From TrEMBL:
This is Transcription factor. Residues 214-223, 420-443 have a biased composition (Polar residues). It is found in: Nucleus. It comes from the Eukaryota. It comes from Solanum stoloniferum. Residues 317-418 form the TF-B3 domain. Its main location: nucleus.
Length: 845
DNA sequence: GTTTTGCATGAATCG
DNA sequence: GATTCATGCAAAACA
């Protein structure tokens, strides 16, 4: 992985993953200031980051002599050119007018820290950097009067930049001056990284052979960049457009950092190649293509493509695929300006079929059309799905539209997004390319890459801060999450249950009680707040308590059950226990108890441990009791989360609750397709299935019962609970012991508010049961005692297990299964006996 | 029931 | 404030 090292001899901080994540670069842009010491990173080039082939040597752009890569040991040996590449010092000093940037090294002994000071900075900007006060200097630059090049925001001012002397002037040469000038002329204080970013976004090819003098629209066919079958389109005219082209002053406005461009801009620093080329002007002489659509194709890519296609390739524009573009709808939204500039004019909304060739020569036919939209048009290419799939593109990848000259045929290339690499093979080594490391692939070149064109420059990419990505737009505002690096995503990965553990109702919020399915829920107008994570326990006596860890001393304090803590909480905030309101006071809990507590609170699998009777020692009894209590409260067989404070979503439910309400996405939006495999849908389906099975079973039981009643006198021990065994009595008996626990559990779930039982015995489908429970229930109902039942039994309070002899367990479980089969769902604790009507009618759905 | 189609909406960006 | 464009969504078409 590439790395940068702060050049401050006393700092020497390196960019590392930890660094990036922990405190990052200060500038928010690409490394500009060491966050550690504040020294400038700018202009410093280091081996791993910059040189393409790991040789450590590069070539002077001017004299072609090898120079060192710029590692610390040889940091004075060369200059890093604004417009890309490096040059040896000797050449640098002779490069008048080529905006050679001085190497800026803290502690540098060079006079003024400047090399190539004669470089003609057209801006009159002081060509040196005060290494010790980079920010100040940048500020100063901002106020430089001669700034010719404005901020990025002055997008369109690019056209008023320095005039080009002749049409045939190569792009690169132009940029060498202008871009370099723009670097120091960048007055953007708001985006401190801009200077660097611009530099790298603007750097040009060492030998760009793509000249704007390309007779745009003067292909042999005389047609402007159109698909072969599209006739009758406007011919490319010279006039305003081409004149504009001739006079086009190419200071490629640094493109807006699109998802790829942003990363590539950084990558460009590495490869010094991927620059946004002002595209060929399109039809109608309109040249307002936003730079984000400027094709960013390297020379090599162009050459390669041209070689492959044996034609001259004129890059037109590119677009980063949005989720919609890459989705199954098969519609690729074309930027309006691009569509109108490079595609045939259409008057009808239906548009025209248009043939576009991919880089393999395969021809695709799309429907080029538009929709009216806000008095404007929205251009789309329809039917792109096969092509997209063929190219294996996805959201974030870039499609590049080019034109073949002669012929004017449209070609569609692509470049894989570097972001996607993250999910693939981050280990992919840099390709030894003359173009620099981590080069993304353009179209077919990707085929030759081991990872399908996804390159490893994500290592550089990782250094693109989110602030920069934030500006990215092309992937869509709603898709910005796609920009998140996988590592970042990992950092943020948190389950909904975990979130619920942390959410609290806003302290000032007052809930509205709504009743859904006879269940009361508290709805809050205000957004929830994050609270402190606590652990709830229940003693075998049924007492509920809550444990919180002091943020200051890390000691654990016992708190009343109903308390909701803020995110930050210390011992001094312990107003409920004056004896434990200081960090100086030792823990409320012994180490062993603490261990058990943490095991309960921390490890979602702790119940497995408990079930395995590990550490069922006295010190862990409370924990076990907690488990049992929470199991009783939530779900007997639920291996879910520890019982923690009420959630905001519906505080009756505790974090970890995976009932159908809790597992719904927070927005509640989005419709579920019948094929949807989401938890909600699966749960509903499963429960429906369970319900039907229950009904069926019940019906058969009734029939059998009726038949039995006809034949004989009912069995003596048969209670009137519709076949309920005596086991249920055992359970009920057990419940009587624990009911208070369960009851209080319910109470606490509503933060003290009394809420009614969730029991499904009222003849409703219980949507609050644990979705994973039904299968177990089903198995139990049909197969009698199962392993699950045994496991569940282990969740019964130890007291019960010990007080009741083990042999009663079988009966108990059997009856439990029977009771469950009768629709008494255990999720909310024990069967609510009150709901079990004689005759088992309570299970009616 | 699924897919396609056309439009509406609103965030982001531009001027 | 205007414009662009990604996306949601409902109706229509299709299987």
């Amino acid at each position: 992985m590439g790395s940068m090292i702060c050049m401050n001899e006393l700092c020497r901080a390196t960019t590392s993953v930890e660094w990036k994540k922990g405190w990052g670069f200060k500038s928010g842009g690409f490394a500009k200031l060491c966050y550690n010491c504040g020294s400038a990173f700018e202009n410093l080039v280091f081996c791993e980051t910059f040189h393409p082939d790991e040789s450590g040597w590069r070539e002077c752009r001017t004299c072609r002599k090898p120079i060192h890569c710029g590692c610390i040991a040889s940091k004075y040996l060369y200059e890093y050119l604004d417009y890309g590449g490096v040059t040896c010092i000797k050449c640098a000093r002779h490069l008048d007018g080529h905006s050679i940037r001085p190497i800026q090294i803290p502690g540098d002994d060079f006079p003024n820290g400047t090399l190539g000071s004669k470089s003609a900075q057209p801006l009159g900007v002081e060509n040196k950097i005060d290494e010790n006060d980079f920010e100040r200097r940048r500020l100063m630059q901002t106020n430089e009067p001669g700034q010719l090049f404005q901020t990025q925001r002055n997008d369109k001012k690019q056209d008023t930049m320095l005039p080009i002397g002749n049409v045939g002037t190569c792009f690169s040469n132009l940029n060498q001056q202008n871009i370099g000038a723009s670097l120091f002329g960048k007055p953007d204080n708001e985006r401190p990284s801009q200077g660097v970013k611009d530099m790298y976004e603007s750097i040009n090819q060492p030998s760009l052979n793509f000249c704007l003098s390309t007779p745009i629209g003067t292909s042999s066919s005389g047609q402007p960049f159109l698909g072969g079958d599209v006739e009758g389109r406007e011919q490319s005219k010279t006039s305003p457009f081409q004149q504009g082209q001739r006079a086009r002053h190419i200071l490629p406005k640094p493109p807006k950092p699109s998802p790829t461009s942003g990363s590539e801009s950084v990558k460009g620093m590495a490869s010094q190649a991927r620059i946004a080329r002002p595209p060929a002007e399109g039809r109608g002489g309109r040249s307002q293509l936003l730079p984000r659509y400027w094709p960013r194709i390297t020379d090599q890519e162009l050459e390669k493509l041209a070689g492959d296609l044996k034609s001259t390739i004129v890059p037109l524009f590119e677009k980063v695929l949005s989720a919609s573009d890459a989705g199954r709808i098969g519609r690729l939204v074309l930027p309006k300006a691009c569509a109108e500039a490079y595609f045939p004019p259409i008057n009808q909304s239906e548009g025209l079929p248009i043939r576009i060739q991919d880089i393999k020569g395969k021809e695709w036919t799309f429907q080029f059309r538009f929709w009216p939209n806000n008095n404007s048009r929205m251009y789309v290419l329809e039917g792109v799905t096969p092509c997209i799939q063929n190219m294996q593109l996805q959201a974030g990848d870039t499609v590049i539209f080019s034109r073949i000259d002669p012929g004017g045929k449209l070609v569609m290339g692509f470049r894989k997004a570097t972001n996607n690499v993250d999910m693939q093979d981050p280990q992919t080594p840099n390709l030894p390319s003359g173009n620099g490391s981590g080069e993304t692939s353009f179209s077919g070149m990707a085929d030759n890459l081991p990872n399908g064109g996804r390159t490893s420059d994500d290592t550089v990419n990782r250094q693109v801060p989110m602030s920069e990505k934030k500006k990215a737009r092309n992937i869509g505002s709603k898709n910005k999450r796609l920009l998140m690096h996988a590592d970042d995503a990992m950092e943020l990965r948190i389950t909904w249950e975990e979130i619920q553990e942390l959410l609290r109702p806003s302290p000032t919020a007052k809930p509205n009680i709504v009743v859904v399915e006879d269940c009361e829920f508290e709805e809050y107008e205000e957004a929830p707040v994050f609270g402190k994570r606590t652990i709830f326990t229940a003693r075998s006596s049924g007492d509920q308590e809550q444990w919180a860890q002091c943020d200051s001393c890390a000691k654990w304090r016992r708190l009343p059950f109903h308390v909701l803590l803020p995110a930050k909480w210390t011992c001094s905030d312990n107003i409920w226990d004056s004896r434990r309101c200081s960090c100086a006071i030792p823990d409320d809990i012994s180490p062993r108890e603490l261990e058990a507590l943490l095991r309960v609170g921390k490890d979602p699998k702790r119940r497995k441990l408990v079930e395995n009777n590990e550490d069922l020692e006295s010190s862990g009894l409370d924990a076990l009791a907690t488990v049992a209590a929470s199991d009783m409260g939530d779900s007997i067989g639920d291996m879910g989360e520890p019982s923690v404070g009420a959630t905001t979503k519906h505080p009756r439910h505790r974090p970890g609750c995976s009932c159908i309400v809790c597992i719904q996405p927070p927005s509640g939006k989005g419709k579920h397709h019948p094929t949807c495999k989401c938890n909600v849908c699966l749960t509903v389906k499963r429960r429906f299935k369970t319900l039907m099975l229950r009904k069926k079973k019940k019906q058969s039981e009734r029939e059998a019962e009726l038949a039995q009643a006809k034949d004989q006198v009912p069995p003596k021990d048969e209670p009137e609970t519709d076949g309920m065994t005596s086991g249920i009595e055992l359970l009920q008996m057990n419940h009587s012991e624990n009911e208070h626990m369960n009851h209080s559990d319910n109470e606490r779930n509503s933060n003290g508010d009394q809420v009614e039982e969730f029991g499904p015995g009222k003849g409703q489908l219980d949507l609050n049961c644990h979705p994973n429970r039904d299968d177990d229930m089903l198995a139990e109902a049909t197969a009698g005692m199962s392993m699950t039942s045994l496991v569940n039994a282990t969740n019964l309070p130890l007291e019960y297990l010990t007080q009741n002899r083990l042999e009663s367990l079988g009966n108990s479980l059997l009856s439990q299964a029977a009771s469950e089969s009768e629709g008494h769902h255990p999720d909310n604790g024990f069967v609510k006996t009150a709901d079990v009507e004689p005759g088992g009618k309570g299970a009616e759905a």
